[in-house]
Amino acid sequence: MTGHLAPRPGFVLDVDRNSPPIVFHHGEGFRLEKLPPGRSRVIYPAEPLEGLPDPDSAIREALLNPIGESDPLPALLRPGMKLTIAFDDISLPLPPMRRPDIRQRVIEAVLDLAAEAGVDDVHLIAALAIHRRMTEDELRHAVGDRVYDAFAPDGRLYNHDAEDPDGMVVLGETPHGEDVQFSRRAAESDLVVYVNINLVAMDGGHKSTATGLSGYTGLRHHHNVHTMRNSRSFMDQENSALHASNWRMGKIIRDAGVKIFQIETTVNNDTFGREGPLALLQKREWEWSARDRMQFLGMKAGLDVMPTKVKRKVFSSWQAPYALTSVQAGEVEAVHEVTTENVYRQHLVPVEGQTDILTMGMPYICPYNVNSIMNPILVMCLGLGYFFNLYRGRPLVREGGVLIMSHPTPWEFNPVHHPSYIDFFEQVLADTTDPVEIEKKYEKQFAEDEWYIHLYRNSYAYHGVHPFYMWYWGSHALQHLGRVIIVGGDPAAVRRMGFQVASTLQDALEMASDVVGPQPTITHMKNPPILMADVT
Amino acid sequence: MPAGIEPASPRHPLGADYDTSWARRYPARVARAAILESVMRPTMAVIASPARRGLDRLDDVDGPVVFVANHHSHADTPLLLTSIPEPWRHRIVVGAAADYFFSNRVAGAVSALAIGAVPIERTKVGRKSADMARDLIDDGWSMLLYPEGGRSPDGWGQEFRGGAAYLAIRCNVPVVPIHLQGTGRILRKGRTLPRPSRTTVTFGDPLTAGHDENARSFAARLQAAVAALGDEATSDWYQARLRAHAGTSPGLTGPDVGAWRRAWALGDRDRRSRRRRRRWPAL
Amino acid sequence: MKALQFRRNLPRYAAARMAGSLTPGRGAAAGPLKLVDLDGPQAPGPDWVQVRPRLSGICGSDLATVDGRSARYFEPLVSFPFIPGHEVVGDLADGTRVVLEPVLGCVSRNLDPTCRPCSNGHLGNCEHTSFGDLEPGIQTGSCHDTGGGWSTAFSAHPSQLHPIPDVLDDEAAVMIEPTACGVHAALAAEVPDGGVVAVLGAGTLGLVTMAALRAYTDSGTVVATARYPEQRRQAATLGADQVVAPDEIRRAVRRITGSRAIGAPGLDETPTEGIVDRLTGGADVVVDCVGSSTSLTDALAIVRPRGRIVLVGMPAEVSLELTPLWHREIALVGAYTYGIETLPDGTERRTFDLASELVTEAGLGSLVTATYPLARYRDALEHAASAGRRGATKIAFDMRDEKERLL
Predict the structure, then answer these.
(1) Is the pLDDT at B280 greater than 60, yes or no?
(2) Residue A382 pLDDT grade (very low, low, confident, very high; cuts 50, 70, 90)
(3) Which residue from B minimizes the CA distance to C273?
(4) In degrees rounded to 5, what are phi and psi of residue A7?
């Protein structure tokens, strides 16, 4: 850390004849692609900001000096109270971070204050809404062994169960008629402390509790095609119907008497480390040394011959050396304002104008395949959902333009984690890829299927309705784009989703010309590490 | 000098005056590291099956520290030396009782070489020892000390004396409390043959002396910290925190009752040593 | 007359088997099937008549014979040399167009009294098969004495012939016999009201069965497996509510019935919840129109406890784990051929009559994709064997232009 120059902000590089080829993520591997000079640009993320020098002190400070209308945490704790600590699940951060996880630090600090106040009735809930349950190892990684061993054996640390008929309540309805469904334990607690990791601007605020501790009855009001199409983008709170709905629900939660002490944290985007085998993925290509080049080629050669199972194991064992860049606690909305500023501080890159084509290399990981397989639906969600929406202002690609993604997109599913995805892919997408049709014809049946509910509650499966949400996440992009092309993808899988497949980037660009005309302009979004484009 | 008494040879001082600086030179350090890794570690693995907890509490600590631990058996030092992580592992000296470990030249040499021992008075730390300690710390060496002054006679701890606290204050370094659980079963005071048993080594958050704090009150804090770690090791972390804040942590020194009842209560403490881990599917 | 004759010739039979195992249908070239010139057919009895085929279909059982894959079970039930071909529409001497019901029962064999099934019209269950005045042969097309459809003339007993109206063209008529198999299978299934039916296989047999299920039973949802795009299209047209690839059938039936599923445990400890190896509930009826180990295993995995599996596709020797059959009290019934059917409302009709009606109603004549002259029998049999892959369904021999016919 010492000896480094100040981190440089993200910026846009105009590709010319001398620009070296760019590294594209390609699932568990990489491709080197040359973009046509003179009409291409590459958006580079900012270098990682310096982390706070003493995270534990910073956390303690935040708990004692809250933001917004809120008492310091010790004042909110008293003996005999019911305390619930809810925390973000396995989908954050990405990739998983090295120990100690931020949640461990925050939760231990909170529990230390709770112990000081003599609080006995404490429950810790992984606020996963309808994601899959976390395994013991994953929970230990998130909260640490001390907290796990103190609370899990007697059932006071557990996964949220949105389908438990006795565990969920409806607190009311927003003025728009949206049911606010909530965890009963949290609703009946004297204080709910939420421990958040705000990896991207979509996270946090009222969404932490209104979504994280909710279930299908509540979620369907904002996890739907209409809401997602009116979220432009869902990373931009000011212009997001998703957030508006969650904020409405947050008010109902507050009015119902649920007291929430929100603790939000941001991390820098040191995804691959500044030293180590993957560090060159965070370095700008023209700044690679000869050694970096050789190392990259060696790594790529090794990966190209490795069997897929081994590659997956190697990549999924990577833990990011994320550092804490900010921590704030107190009243939800006030806290979230500060958090959002900090997220933007790391992620925002100013970009002028749109282009005809947007290219992106898809990494091996997304929020829904940690320790799992990235199936084609998740590729679509990561590309047309998350990455496409990492903008403020306007999308990076013009309306009717083309999105080119790079990912092997195997027709492969993890049957334990994603059983309903298999059925969605085999049955629903074989019929139609139109999200509106899909929502109307199939969503209810999948949401209410007993077997999926059984697997969600007892196994490690995403809820039956989850693949639908994945598809809806891309509905704004599906409406906006003229075509989607996947480079290097499995043809059958790509076509099933209604996209086109190309074996090289050059082919893809040619195919794109059919839609956007000859000599199209191209933007490549070099992400991860995460960046968010501020498009004017 | 009375007749018939040989004066101690001034060239080979013993006890607290034994010079151990040779043992911190490169060749000796290499030898000690070798003994640690190839003899002590496997031996400890077999005899003590140690579980090491709380190492993450040392993540943000830099520079030399003073480690303090409760003391039950001769197995304590090798167990601690193989548990303390880098960067302190190979740059540490152990404060050993001057009158026991340095009573003759051979014992002194073995102690200095094998465990990096330096002589410290049991009861009150003398001026010479204090200066030596400060010099060592300034040179970047960490110290491992047993504030009880010696091994416990009956399995319960003894009151912490002020020596370690005093040194830490004087040299302005943090103190890392460590609790050892189960070593008394391996090699109690009075036994010579070790009996294999499970142990737990629990590291605590580093403590720094307050602005005007004196050695006695700091020593009391250290003792409470080690007691709380002991509570954590035998029950769970949260229960330990609750009791620590309420001031009801089970003390190191045990109940104030007769010997057999103390022995009886000692057995009660270790209820958690065999923990049942439910096997969840590894995904 | 010209005919494709199947002689008893062991070396050639073995050659056919080898060739057929490499490329289905290739047994025709290597095997004991030969195009020969023969003197006209000899009437096996006084009332027998001569039929001159117009179209003769190629059936899956014919292909098995040609490729040497027929079960040894049939050896006592055929007489060499014989002329294959049992799906026939032909002309009588007086020009009447007739369709053949090929089964040879007691009456054809001049046995008196007839056995009980024959008396009740279930000729396929004749208990005197291979006895009587005729050489062994369960049907025209495997009997030396009668000849068979793959020729320009053969002999038929009047009880085997059904005159057909002019409005029914030849392609539709040649489909009546296979459709009758499908009708028989659909009714043998005893589908409960609104029951879920899975049909495995979308070749000719699967398709006609689907049509029959829709027409003559009270099926609810019908889900079919089809390997090829043209088959999928036809299955959907003929009455399947959902058509899926064969390896997707287990999940499809699970979705339709809302059943739970069990994953198959492997050797290691990897979790299996979420894998659909077999269902705990399942379809009411599964009609297996394929008849392989795989299809029967699938059927056992997707049928509900006390459900019914109808085996229509002729199996050979299959290897099967029967524990599910026992444990879930499943009925596995064979459906061979037609006779008299009892419809769900209780009325009794001849299968062939029901088949005629269905062929017209569902336009099943369009399933005849291609026809060949006898001389191109090798091409015809290869085409028939790879029909699905090549987008075809029923292949038939066309004798209408054979000059031998007019003799």
Answers:
(1) no
(2) very high
(3) B281
(4) -65, 140
- What are the strands, taking DSSP E only, across A464-526? 483-487, 500-502, 522-525
Q: Which own/partner contact pairs does C303-306 have at CB distance under 8 Å and 24+ positions apart?
A: C303/C198, C303/C328, C303/C330, C304/C257, C304/C259, C304/C279, C304/C328, C305/C281, C305/C329, C305/C330, C306/C330, C306/C331
Hey, is A413 helix, strand or coil? coil
Task: Determine contact: C401 vs chain B, CB below 8 A.
Answer: no
C206-225 residues touching B, CB cutoff 8 A:
none
The pair of three-digit structure tokens given for residue B62, joined into one six-digit string: 């830099």
Domains and CATH numbers, chain C: 2-177+359-406 (3.90.180.10), 190-334 (3.40.50.720)
- Mean pLDDT (whole number) for B199-223: 90
Chain C residues within 8 A of A427 when measuring between CB atoms? 242, 244, 251-252, 255
Is B159 part of any domain? yes
Interface predicted TM-score (ipTM)? 0.83
CATH class of A57-267: alpha beta
Residue A155 has a CB neighbour count (10 Å cut-off) of 8
The reply to whether B92 falls in a domain is: yes
Residue B272 located in a structural domain: no
Cβ A530 vs Cβ A200: under 8 Å: yes
Q: In CATH, what number is assigned to the domain containing residue B95?
A: 3.40.1130
Per the listing, tokens 């309805």 go with A173
Q: Nearest CA to C14 among C35, C1, C30, C26? A: C30
Percent of chain A with pLDDT over 90: 97
B280 in a structural domain: no
Phi, psi of B203 (to 5 degrees): -90, 140
- Interface contact C263, partner A, CB < 8 A: yes
Q: Do A112 and B241 touch (CB under 8 A)?
A: yes
For residue C249, CA distances in Å to A129, C214, C222, C328, C389 come to: 31, 20, 12, 19, 20
Determine the Cα–Cα distance for residues C323 and C339; give it in Å rounded to an integer. 33
> Does C275 contact chain A (CB < 8 Å)?
yes
Query: Read out DSSP for A318-365?
Result: --B---EEEEEEESHHHHHHHHHHHHHHHHEEEE-S-EEEEEEEEES-
Structural domain boundaries enclosing B111 = 15-49+60-182+195-267
Q: Per DSSP, what are the bridge partners of residue B181?
A: B200
Question: Strands across the sheet with B175-181, in order?
Answer: B50-53, B199-203, B175-181, B66-69, B142-145, B92-97, B117-120
Whole-number pLDDT of residue B279: 46
Segment A141-166, tens digit of pLDDT: 999 999 999 999 999 999 999 999 99
Overall pTM surpassing 0.80 (yes/no): yes
Strands C283-288 and C197-200: parallel
Taking one residue from A and the other from B, the number of pairs with CB-CB distance under 8 angstroms is 55
DSSP states of C297-324 as a string?
Answer: HHHHHHEEEEEEEEE-SPP-S-----HH
CA distance A162 to B61: 42
Number of domain units in chain B: 1
- The predicted pLDDT at position B269 comes to 59
Residue ranges per structural domain of chain A = 11-48+347-535, 57-267
Instruction: Please report all neighbours of C, defined by 3+ CB atom pairs within 8 A.
Output: A, B
CATH architecture, range A11-48+347-535: Alpha-Beta Complex (3.90)
Number of neighbours of residue B211 by Cβ within 10 angstroms: 5
Q: Give the chain A residue nearest B61 (alpha carbons).
A: A54
